[in-house]
Specification:
6 helices, Metal Binding Protein, Guanine Nucleotide Exchange Factor, Chain A, alpha+beta, ubiquitin conjugating enzyme binding, elongated, cyclin binding
Length: 336
C-alpha cells in the first residue's frame, strides 16, 4: 500500500495488505524488504511486524534528522520570477497567452491593504511614493507589473480598466467580475472590490508561467503550509461557488512511498506530501471563534483536490481512513 516517514517521531510506518506473512515471508531487517522506503536506512535496521485485521504494519526506527523539511515553501515568488523578464502568463487548460508581466513584487500578506498604515510611507506627493520600490500600489504607468501572494497574482494594466459587466484584459475577458480565458472560457481569476484599480486578480492555480510550471495542488499545499506557519492556522474552509470542503491541516509534512501508482499524486514511487483530514459536511462541526480560514479555489482545482483526497484516502488501512466524522487524504507538497 504505502509507507510514510514520520519526520518528527523518527519512525517509518509501512502498510501492507492483511495476511501478507502467510506465504512464509517474515522480514527482520530493512535488507529483507523488496520495496523502496521514503528514505534510505541502514540494511541492518530492525523491522517490527504487527498484524491487524485490515493490514500488516511494519515499523522501522530512523534518525530524526533524516529527510528535508519544506514548511513555508511558496512557489512562484517575485525574486524567482524577476530573474527572467518579461514573464508570459498562459492558461493552464489550453496554453493560450493571457498577459505579459514586466515586473513582480511580493505582497506582504493576503489582506495587505488592511495593514497599509503599518508599512506604507505617507507623503502628499504621489510621484515620491511611486519612486519607492516597496510600495506596489504606485508603479510607473509604463510598466505592466504584478503583485504576488501565495494563491494569486494581481496584474495591474497599463491602460485603465472599467468595472463593467464584460471587458477585455490583455487576451482574456472579464464577465461579471470573473476573468475567463478568451480561448477556452476557463475561469482564471476575477476582480475583488478592494484590489488596486485597473487590475485583475489571477489565480496561480489556473495559470502557467513559461519555464515555471508548478502543479496546481503543489501551490495549494504550499499555501496551507505558509498560512499555518505565519498565522498558526490549521483549519480551512475550501470554497468554490456553493461547494465547500472542510480541511484540517493535522500532519503537515511526510515522505511517502507508493507501492501502486496513484495518478492523483504522481507516477514516481517517492513523494513528499501533506497529510490532511477532510470532510464535505459541516453539520457536526462547532464553530467557536474565527479560527477557520476561507480559501477560494477555481472550480477545476476544487474538483481536483476533492478527488485527490478521496483517492488517496483508499491508500490507508481502514482503521486510519476515518477518525470520527473526518477522513484522511494526501496532497503533493512540491515537485520532484
Amino acid at each position: 500500500m504505502l509507507s510514510e516517514h514520520l519526520v518528527n517521531v523518527g519512525r517509518i510506518n509501512v502498510f501492507l495488505p492483511p495476511k501478507v506473512l502467510e506465504n512464509g515471508w517474515n522480514p527482520r531487517k530493512a535488507a529483507d524488504l523488496p520495496f523502496e522506503l521514503p528514505i534510505d536506512v541502514p540494511e541492518q535496521t530492525p523491522v517490527s511486524v504487527a498484524e491487524r485485521p485490515d493490514c500488516t504494519m511494519l515499523t522501522l526506527p530512523c534518525s530524526l534528522l533524516q529527510g528535508e523539511r519544506s514548511e513555508g515553501f511558496i512557489p512562484l515568488e517575485a525574486d524567482e520570477l524577476n530573474e527572467s523578464l518579461p514573464t508570459t502568463i498562459i492558461c493552464r487548460k489550453c496554453n493560450s497567452k493571457l498577459a505579459t508581466v514586466s515586473s513582480w513584487k511580493n505582497l506582504p500578506a493576503s489582506n495587505w491593504q488592511e495593514f497599509i498604515d503599518c508599512w506604507a510611507c505617507h507623503t502628499e506627493t504621489p510621484a515620491v511614493v511611486s519612486a519607492n520600490p516597496f510600495l506596489p500600489t504606485f508603479a510607473p504607468a509604463s510598466v505592466c507589473f504584478a503583485l504576488l501572494w501565495s494563491t494569486y497574482a494581481n496584474i495591474k494594466k497599463v491602460n485603465p480598466l472599467k468595472l463593467e459587466d464584460e471587458m477585455p484584459f490583455a487576451n482574456g475577458i472579464v464577465k461579471n467580475k470573473i476573468a475567463l480565458c478568451y480561448n477556452c472560457g476557463e475561469e482564471v481569476g476575477g476582480i475583488e472590490e478592494n484590489d488596486p484599480p485597473a487590475s485583475i486578480r489571477v489565480h496561480k492555480f489556473a495559470i502557467k508561467l513559461l519555464n515555471l510550471n508548478y502543479p496546481p495542488l503543489v501551490i495549494f499545499s504550499s499555501t496551507l503550509l505558509s498560512l499555518r506557519k505565519q498565522y498558526s492556522v490549521h483549519k480551512f474552509v475550501i470554497l468554490s461557488g456553493d461547494k465547500k470542503l472542510w480541511v484540517w491541516c493535522m500532519t503537515p509534512y511526510l515522505n511517502i512511498s507508493l507501492f501502486k501508482p496513484c495518478s492523483a499524486l504522481s507516477s514516481s514511487t517517492k513523494l513528499p506530501v501533506m497529510k490532511l483530514m477532510f470532510r464535505r459536511e459541516a453539520k457536526d462541526l462547532h464553530f467557536e471563534g474565527d479560527d477557520w480560514m476561507d480559501i477560494v479555489l477555481p472550480k477545476p482545482l476544487f474538483c481536483l483536490l476533492q478527488e485527490t483526497l478521496k483517492v488517496t484516502n483508499k491508500l490507508y488501512p481502514a482503521s486510519a481512513r476515518k477518525i470520527g466524522p473526518w477522513r484522511v487524504g494526501l496532497v503533493p507538497l512540491h515537485k520532484e
